[in-house]
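Good morning,

Attaching, inline, the backbone tokens for the sequence recovery test we're adding to the shared suite. The designed sequence is right after.
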């Protein structure tokens, strides 16, 4: 029971930190569940489900604040959703899943240590980049349970397509549609549901209420982002070493 409470607190904290930068928090939830040794058949649908609720809340707040861009979002989303559905349908064995998620967490951790200028002048996005980016990130999202926004955000900033709050809004929408597609694919092939999913969602939403307020008003402090990166490194390494 004590471990379960600590897990819920970690999920709540992850949701707060991730939503403050427009993310659903899947890599954080996966990291928390990995540290507590939850089974792969629980981790993937649980992370995607929490993503749905948290990303929806963040998107509503940022959309109402007029930070969203349909022009950037639509091409990426159209390419990503069918790939996320396909990835969600795949059910690798436990060892393979641990390698996939462990690698995904280590890659995700890098985004919290690399600093990218988010106040630079933006350029117009191109379909030739949007389509393959959306497809690749959508597949990763559905296969691993990571929403994909944690990879999309730094990429959009690096390409100079967005500034920070528009970036957060697009990431939230991207996470929302890919989590829905990935979860739909997963439920078609694996007709099971985590028994404690209600508690996970409640904990994530509590954190997201605070984090979404930060997303609209201020950015997450660099020290918190780096601490989150360290947690992902530890969880990713644990999954790879125990696979």
């Amino acid at each position: 029971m004590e471990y379960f409470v600590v897990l819920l607190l970690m999920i709540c904290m992850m949701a707060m930190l991730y939503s403050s930068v427009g993310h659903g928090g899947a890599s954080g939830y996966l990291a928390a569940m990995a540290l507590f040794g939850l089974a792969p058949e629980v981790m993937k649908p649980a992370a995607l489900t929490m993503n749905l609720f948290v990303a929806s809340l963040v998107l509503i707040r940022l959309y109402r604040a007029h930070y969203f861009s349909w022009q950037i979002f639509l091409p990426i989303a159209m390419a990503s959703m069918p790939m996320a559905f396909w990835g969600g349908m795949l059910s690798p064995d436990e060892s393979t899943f641990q390698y996939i998620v462990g690698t995904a967490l280590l890659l995700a951790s890098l985004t919290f240590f690399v600093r990218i200028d988010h106040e630079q002048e933006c350029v117009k996005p191109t379909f030739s980049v949007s389509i393959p980016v959306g497809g690749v990130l959508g597949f990763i999202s559905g296969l691993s349970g990571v929403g994909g926004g944690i990879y999309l955000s730094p990429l959009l900033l690096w390409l100079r397509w967005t500034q920070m709050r528009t970036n957060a809004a697009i990431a939230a929408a991207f996470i929302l549609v890919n989590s829905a597609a990935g979860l739909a694919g997963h439920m078609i092939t694996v007709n099971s549901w985590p028994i404690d999913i209600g508690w996970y969602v409640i904990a994530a939403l509590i954190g997201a209420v605070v984090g979404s307020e930060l997303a609209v008003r201020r950015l997450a402090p660099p020290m918190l982002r780096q601490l989150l990166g360290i947690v992902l490194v530890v969880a990713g390494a644990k999954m790879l070493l125990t696979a």
